[in-house]
Amino acid sequence: MKVKNLALIVSAFCTTGAMAANDTQRLEDKLAQLEARLEKAESRAAKAEAQIQVLEKQQQTVAVANPVVVEATEPATAQAAPKLTLSGYGDIKFYGDVEFNMDAASKTGSLTSMKTTANKDWAPGSHERWDINGRLLLGFDGYKRMANGNFAGFSVQPLADLTGKMNLDDAVFFFGTENDWKVKVGRFEAYDMFPLNQDTFVEYSGNTANDLYSDGYGYIYMMKEGRGRSDSGGNFLLSKTLGNWYLEVNTLLEDGSSLFVDQQYHGVDLDNDKNVAYVRPVIAWQEGNFSTAIAMESNLVNNAYGYRDASGKWIDQSERTGYGFTMTWNGQKTDPDDGIVANLNTAYMDATDETDFTAGVNGLWRNFELGYIYAHNQIDNFNTANFDADCDGDCWVTDPGDYDIHTIHASYLIPNVMQMKNFNIYLGAYASWVEAHPNDGDDRSDDRYGGRVRFKYYF
Asked: Which residues partner with 341 through β-bridges?
């Protein structure tokens, strides 16, 4: 009996030991599984932290490259955060440039009828001029292009000059199909038929179609009377591209008497009866570095402006038709460093009581430009009754006859001032003189000359 009891006790003890061993094994397995799960969680956390650090570095790089600072007079709330919203109809571009000049000129009375300052209040005179002038231009362009090549857009360029006045360069709307046809309407300049290359001083400043002719100083005609950018009217232009050919017709509607300084022509005051309509067709051809163009411009409105004589008869002064031809070689297209840009230009104007012929040649090489312009005026009629008093005896192109005008102009570009690609300085100079009745042995002559330093900054 005792033996049996002992056997039972031993058996129970063994069974209990086996069960305890099994429980211990299961506990160890569970601990091992839990440890593996912890290791996986730590690995995932390390990867997430590394990704967060990469994102933070990227954000810091973008913030340094494109810093944006927004200031508000009152704290902005999440519901009313300040923002810039665009319509989404097309691309918007903002740009501009600063153009300030330091000028020294012998006289403001220009033999070439070219304004030599950006100040639109400038008028001919007999005194020497030392001047600082210029303007700041702001440009806003919009452009929308469709997948089929159709496009539309606009451009507006307000000007702020040193006289404290606000002016306007271009204000134009356009539409068409790329590399095919185009329509432009507004204030702008059409095709340039008398390019002067890198001109800094002998140039038209401000309006192109206004105040080009000044009585008593001679006239260099450059096919610009119907080109546009007028203070008294607007343009409508149609153009077409056919391979190497380019065709355009520009129409300028304006007060035609605005062409003449003080609305005076050949010694008489003009009365504007109705606006003129200049039509200016251009045919151009281009192949590689070479291009050429022919054009004409003519006022189609009879009796647009004129005056009444002593008997009260109306005398029309608005008949004006001009012709032009230009050739250009642009070697900088294939050789930007050593290429030569050369222009040859001619223009002829047949106007009431006057004909004008102009020819010019200019070249640009390695930032240096040199040009020569010859002009011949033939005046058939001139009213000198009260003209000399108005001119103080200084402007003397007042008698019927022939006048020859010679102009030499030069400029030099200093690029990348202080290693800034958007900052240039131009040095310009010109000399111009006129000869009265050269075929008759008349030795009368007069001259003009000047120099300019121009600061040009783009943004």
From this structure: 330, 364
List all residues 6 or more positions away from 91 whose beta carbon is below 8 Å from its beta carbon: 142, 143, 144
Please give the backbone phi and psi of residue 271, each rounded to the nearest 5 degrees, phi first. -110, 130
- Within 10 angstroms of residue 370's Cβ, the number of other Cβ atoms is 16
pLDDT in tens, 62-101: 444 455 444 545 555 556 778 888 888 889 999 999 999 9
Asked whether 361 and 328 are in contact (CB, 8 A), the reply is no
pLDDT at 111: 54
Task: Decide the pairing of beta strands 264-265 and 91-105.
Answer: unpaired
pLDDT, tens digit, 9 for 90 and up, residues 313-329: 999 999 999 999 999 99
Distant-in-sequence, close-in-space partners of 198: CB < 8 Å, separation ≥ 6: 364, 367, 369, 411, 413, 426
- What the block records as the tokens of 415 is 């690029």
Element (H, E) at 286: strand 276-287
The DSSP-derived string for 153-192 is: EEEEEEEEETTS-EEEEEEEEEEEETTTEEEEEEE-B---
Residue type (1 letter), 291: S
Tens of pLDDT, residue by residue over 211-226, are 888 888 888 999 999 9
- Band the pLDDT of 119: cuts 50, 70, 90: low
End-to-end CA distance of the chain: 115
Q: Are the beta carbons of 267 and 384 closer than 8 angstroms?
A: yes
pTM, 2 dp: 0.78
Whole-angstrom Cα distance, residue 96 to residue 159?
10
